[in-house]
Amino acid sequence: MAVYRFRVTFEDNEEVYREIEIKSAQNFEDFHNIIIHSIGFDNLHDASFFISDDLWRKGEEIGLIPLAEDEVERRKRREIPIKKQMNKCKMASLIDDPHQKFVYVYDPKTSWTFMIELVKILLDDPKGTFPKCIKSIGEAPKQHNTASKVVAVEDDEDFDDDEPHLDDDAYANAHGEDETSLLEGEEGEEEESEDEAHVEDESHDEDAHDPGEFEEEDH
Q1: In the chain, what are the domain boundaries?
Q2: 158: which DSSP letter?
Q3: CATH number at 2-137
Q4: For 120-172, what is each residue's pLDDT tens digit?
Q5: How many other C-beta atoms lie within 10 A of the C-beta of residue 19?
Q6: 31, 79, 121, 209 from 10: Cα distances, Å
């Protein structure tokens, strides 16, 4: 009989990890329980181990809660793999590599995910108590984070006057589906203003060349 030493690392923070030793004859439910205990979680939710390759891609599943009979039948009909049960699966039965990897997911709703790698195989210690956590590095995050999120609001003075505001109607319209019609409307207004200016210029020219004035000068 051997003792496996695994390193269990938080997916989002490699600097937080636990090293756990477990006997080859113990099962995956024992492994699950010591992981949860070592990180201080409540152990009230479902969990699964997945056999993994070197790229941490999930393979065969070993689940904590057994599938209902109707779900088993449904998977059989559709030829979907039926997951193994932790309490019926010994550690040694799924260790094929001296650096065997597993992905462990706790609580499907929040999907706490851990990367597990076999780092050493030891001789059995008859006097030892297993499984056990032999090293704890870093503080595990809180399982239930109830702190309210505060959304930062920028002061208007911080905005650049040259940049359009997101809540500006003109800016929103110009970036909507009606962008072309808005721009055409603006061009039409400019053309109309130019026509009016041209009419005024012609009016001034006619006044400047009034024939009545020249007739009076001839007389």
Answers
A1: 2-137, 169-218
A2: G
A3: 3.10.290.30
A4: 999 999 889 999 999 999 999 999 875 433 333 344 444 344 444 444 443 34
A5: 18
A6: 16, 33, 22, 91
- Tokens (6 digits) for 210: 């009034």
Supply 128's token pair. Answer: 């030892």
Burial tier of 211 (Cβ tally within 10 Å: 0-12, 13-18, 19+): exposed
| Backbone φ, ψ for residue 89 (5° rounding) | -125, 110
Q: How far apart are CA 184 and CA 32, in angstroms?
A: 66
pLDDT tens-digit map of 25-48: 999 999 999 999 999 999 999 999
How far, in Å, CA of 183 to CA of 40, rounded?
61
SS3 state of residue 91: helix
Yes or no: say if 35 and 17 are a contact pair by the CB < 8 Å rule. Answer: no
Residue 90: strand, helix, or coil: strand
